[in-house]
Amino acid sequence: APRVLNVNVGVLGHIDSGKTALARALSTTGSTAAFDRAPQSRARGITLDLGFSCLRTALPPQMGPGPGELQFTLVDCPGHASLIRTIIGGAQIIDLMMLVIDVTKGMQTQSAECLVIGQIACQKMVVVLNKIDLLPEGKRQSAIEKMTKKMQKTLENTKFCGCPIVAVAAKPGGPEAPESENPLGVSELIEVLKSQAYLPSRDPSGNFLMAVDHCFSIKGQGTVMTGTILSGSVSLGDNVEIPALKVTKKVKSMQMFHTPVTYAMQGDRVGICVTQFDPKLLERGLICTPESLQTIHAAIISLKKIQYFRGALQTKAKFHITVGHETVMGRVMFFSPAPADFNKEIKEDVFDFERDYLYQEEYLSKDSNSSEENKENDQAGEEVQLPRQQWALLEFEKPVTCPKLCLVIGSKLDTDIHANTCRLAFHGVLLQGMEDKNYAETFLPKLKVYKLKHKEGQVERVMDDHSVIGRSLFKKETNIQIFVGLKVKLSTGEDGVIDGGFGQSGKFKIRIPDGLKPDTKTLLTLASKKKSKAGKGETTKEDESSKNDSAQPVTISLLFKRYVFDTQKKMIQS
Fold first, then answer.
1. pLDDT digit string (tens) for 269-298?
2. Where in this protein does the record put region Disordered (predicted)?
3. For 277, which of 167, 204, 223, 546 could close a Cys bridge (C-beta 3.0–4.6 Å)?
4. Nearest to 357 by CA among 330, 389, 398, 385
């Protein structure tokens, strides 16, 4: 048989831009999951699930010599806002994306979200301006040119800058029109798709993992699971695990678009038949090499904020987290390298538990306002230092099953569907999953994320040349013993060490190993004299004037760091 090269083309766009009609106009062989197979989907006229169909054409010259066919598997992704989870699942198997735009409407909210997903998960794109039959013939060409220019502008700052833009009418006259109406521009579109096709890098090695999107039984044969292979390969007779159900099954037969095969690999669209398995148990999900997936309760990811998301990404906030093919609620905690390492090169796909990391109240970005210093630097006109890499700890509300190093997307799917705003907040890579349910005790203490603590107090009075009494650094009920031995600094420049409590009201004694400077002593003696005078109510004219000279009390600064997950809450000073 001549070789068939498979390229997965995602058909994405806003609801009602005509994606399904376009897939239908392009395709020659419908697959089992194709074209709105769900009854509720047909009734509502919208796509609820990923539909798949394919188009075969001669191999274009750039795909190598020799006879063969190029198969485009068209993945028709739903455009309905609440179905964005499905799209994110679909985007992970897409080599080339078709962004379908209703030429009469231009970019809409979900077209923008599809563009964002495309930038994260896809290398190449073709924009299709659909429904040109709705434009009056006399003005059609100028309207198409105008919209083409507009789209080029939109794509200017994305990785799809300069991508082809093709105008078509997939179903002239709309869904009610007779089938005899020929689509416009579709053969040109097929030529553009051929010119954009590339040999995706496929790797048969590694564990087998397949995203199943459809499961049904065939009488006398067994249960067929159809889907796209995300990694590795599969052969007849292999055992595959359905991790969500903890069952393992043997591959009895396999088909690719109605043709029996004995082997399939990454990127292929395949139906796998197993016996004695109820298809109702698995409508969609993952199947894999037995024992190769992890089921995790929490994870460490490296991440980037999506530039179109409005608003800050706050620690402790909840997001919808899409991992692999599941979307669950999760809480986040952001952290960055220690400030000294902001510019260091950091390995992309491993997480180093030996390093120290700095806790962040929110993801640091140009518009974030997390640190006070940044505001001051801004006024000084200095660049705000941003770390090269940031991470988050994700804690899921229920466990998720996923491969290692998989794509993670965080979104706010509860945002009003009709609000014209991007709901995708961040994307990243899962670096480390936590399989233990008690990860908070067993795993998190290894994670060295620290907070910088800064306390300030004041010197109350001098005891002698080498010690002073301080106040306002601790509350009355604080156990000062745990702070004994920590270093402090006076605003006048001396270094001191906390020596112990003094009395019952939270005051404490500070030892000054190098002794107080004469100026400091004078300042403090003046201040305490004033206090005693003020106490007796004797304020004279001279005091009023001298008050302004020494009104600044001497402050005490205590700086230390504390690791967020340290059970003993130790205070550490460098």
1. 889 999 999 988 887 778 999 988 888 999
2. 527-551
3. 223
4. 389
Token pair recorded at residue 432:
């480390």
- 43 or 240, which is more confident: 240
What pLDDT was estimated at residue 350?
A: 87
CA angle 55, 58, 63 (to 5 degrees): 105
Domains of the chain in start order, with CATH, are 3-196 (3.40.50.300), 209-288 (2.40.30.10), 294-366+387-447 (2.40.30.10), 451-529+551-572 (2.40.10.190)
List 125's β-bridge partners, or say none. 97
- Tell me: the pLDDT tens digits for 298-337? 999 999 998 888 889 999 999 999 887 678 999 999 999 9
Record the tokens describing residue 20, joined without a space: 């399904």
**Residue 57 backbone dihedrals phi, psi, to 5 degrees:** -150, 165
Please report, as a single letter, which amino acid is at residue 567: T
pLDDT greater than 90 at residue 563? yes
Q: Are 360 and 315 in contact (CB under 8 A)?
A: yes
Phi-psi bin for 262: left (phi > 0), alpha (psi -120 to 50), beta? alpha
CB neighbours (10 Å) of residue 372? 8
- The reported pLDDT for the residue numbered 237 is 95
Q: Which of 425, 426, 420, 427 is nearest to 112 (CA)?
A: 420
Which spans in 347-467 are helix H?
Answer: 372-379, 439-442
Question: How confident is the model over 415-425, as pLDDT tens digits?
Answer: 666 667 788 89
Q: Exposed, middle or buried by CB within 10 Å (0-12, 13-18, 19+), for 207?
A: middle
Whole-number Cα distances in Å, 296 to 46, 317, 401: 34, 20, 6
Query: How far apart (Å, rounded) are the C-alpha atoms in residues 171 and 168?
Result: 9
How many Å apart are CA 71 and CA 59, to the nearest integer?
Answer: 9
CB 133 within 8 A of CB 169: yes
In the predicted structure, residue 46 carries a pLDDT above the cut 70: no
What torsion do the CA atoms of 434, 440, 446, 447 make, to the nearest 10 degrees? 80
Please state, rounded to an integer, the average pLDDT across all residues of the chain: 82
Predicted confidence (pLDDT) at residue 380 exceeds the cutoff of 60? no
Task: Count how many Cα atoms sit within 13 Å of the Cα of residue 362 in the half-sphere of its side chain.
Answer: 14
φ and ψ of 25, to 5 deg: -65, -30
Mean pLDDT within 364-390? 64
Report which of residues 182 and 496 the model is more confident about. 496
As a whole number of angstroms, the distance between CA 338 and CA 561 comes to 12
